[in-house]
Amino acid sequence: MAKNLVIVESPSKAATIKKFLGSSYEVVASNGHVRDLPKSQLGIDVENDFEPKYITIRGKGELLAKLRREVKKADKIYLATDPDREGEAISWHLANALKLEGKNTRRITFNEITKTAVKQSIKQAREIDMNLVDAQQARRVLDRLVGYQISPVLWAKVKRGLSAGRVQSVALRIIADREEEINAFISKEYWTMSAEFLAAGDKKPFTADFYGTKDKKMAIESEGQLDEIIKELEQSDFTISDCKETERTKKSPMPFTTSTLQQEAAKSLNFATQKTMRLAQGLYEGVAVKGRGTIGLITYLRTDSTRISEDAKKMAYDYIEENYGSEYQARTEKTEKGNKKIQDAHEAIRPTYVDLTPAAVKDSLSRDHFRLYQLI
C-alpha cells in the first residue's frame, strides 16, 4: 500500500486531520516555521536584489531530521500548512529544507478542518503558489530592513530598548499627528440641559433634552446663561404638543472577519488581541469533543472576507428550518459591498458544525474557549 505523508504546522492540527484519513496516511507537524533570517545579522543581500539568507531555526535540527526520515518512507507528500501567505511560505521552506524537489510533493489547503474539507483538498492538490510565497518574503524582508536598520538609530539618538517596524512606525506617526491636533484644539465652554417630566396618569417619568425654542436653536455658552433659562422654564407649563412613532430595523451584523472578531472579543469579553487569536487557533485546529473525538470547531481565523460557502449556507438554512421553522429563514441573501482591497481567499469565521451549539460543547471547552465559541 502506498504511503502518504501529510505535513502540518501543529501537533493538535495533525491529531485532528489524522482522524479523517486512513492508515495509508501519516500526519506529522513542523511546529511552525523551520527556517528564518538570522537574528545576529541583517540576513539580506541588499546588493543582490535583496536576496534573503535563510538559516535553520535554532532547535529545529532534530525535528527536520525526523521529517526527513518520514519523507524517505513516503510515496507522496502533502504540504498542508495554513491557507494564507504565511502557510504557503512554511510549505516552501519545508520543501527546500527537506529537499523535496523531484519528489511527488503537492500542496493542499482547507478553510475548515472537517473530513469533507480535508478529503476534498487532497483531490484538488496543487503546486506551491510562489506568488503567495513572494508576498510573504517581501513583508519579511521589509520587516527586517526597517527594524534592524532604524532601531539602532533610535537607541543612539533617543533611548535604548526602543524599536521601529514596518507597521508600528507608521501607526506611531499617525498617533503622534493626531495628538498634535488634539493639543492644538482650542476648547470652548458649552452647557447642555435636560429635564425630567412626569405626565399626568403616568407612573414613570421621562427625560427630555433642551435645544432651544420652537423658532430658534439655542447654544448655552455659560453657567449664567443656563441659570437664566432654568429660571424662565421653572415658571412655565409644559405640554406634549406632538407625538411621533417610528419603527427602526436593526440589521444583523455581518459574519466575523479577523479584525471584527478581535474588536468584538475585546468589547464583549475583554480579551486582548493575542488572547483572541490564540483561542481561535485552538478552536480551528481541533478540540476533543465528547462523543465526536478531536474536531475543528471554526473555520480559518485569518480572513478579511464576510463570505459564507454555499454548503455552509445550506447547513444553516436546514438547521433554522428544523429548529425554528422556515418563517425564520432569510428571504434575501445579505451581502457586503465589494471592496477591492479584500482578498476574499477564505470564508468568514464561522462554526464548522451547525449542530454543535455552544451548549453542546460547553463541557469539552475551557471557559475562555467556550466564551469565544459562543460569540462566533
Structure description:
The structure is a single chain. The protein is α/β, with parallel strands linked by helices. The protein is built from 12 helices and 12 strands. The strands form 5 sheets. The chain has a 4-stranded parallel β-sheet, sandwiched between helices. Strand 4 and strand 5 form a beta hairpin. The longest helix is centred in the middle third of the chain and has 28 residues, at 130-157. It is flat. The two termini are 42 Å apart.
Question: Helicity level, as a percent range?
Answer: 40-55%
CATH class of the largest domain: Alpha Beta
- Indicate the low-confidence ranges by residue numbers: none
Distance between the termini: 42 Å
* Strand segment tally: 12
Strand order of the largest sheet: 2-1-7-8
**Beta fraction of the residues?**
5-15%
| CATH architectural category of the largest domain | 3-Layer(aba) Sandwich
Number of helices: 12
What fold name goes in the CATH topology slot of the largest domain? Rossmann fold
The secondary-structure element order is EHEEEEEHEHEHHHEEHHHEEHHH
The figure for the number of domains is 3
Gyration radius, in Å: 29 Å
Shape: flat
* Major beta sheet summary: 4 strands, parallel
In round numbers, the mean pLDDT is: 92
The computed structural class is: alpha/beta
